[in-house]
Amino acid sequence: MKNTKLQRNLVVLAVALAFILVITMCIQFIMIGVESSKTNQLEDELANLNTNVETIGDEVDYYKTMMYIEKCARENLNMYGEGDIIFKPKS
Length: 91
Known about the structure:
With 91 residues, the chain is mainly α. The protein has one domain. It contains two helices and no strands.
């Protein structure tokens, strides 16, 4: 009788430990899924940021060109280039 009670207690303990192990594994799989989703989201965000960096780099390159500098000088400073014909309204 004592031996069967001990065996029954050991079986209950083994089942309880197995249940705890299964629950722990399920939680770990869920956490891995969440982290994987976060990783994918961050990778997408990084790709978007890299695209923005390239676009801004292209804009900076344009702003360094003589064409842009001349455009700003003409539009903002009322300057003109050599050989330009200037038309002035009669006052």
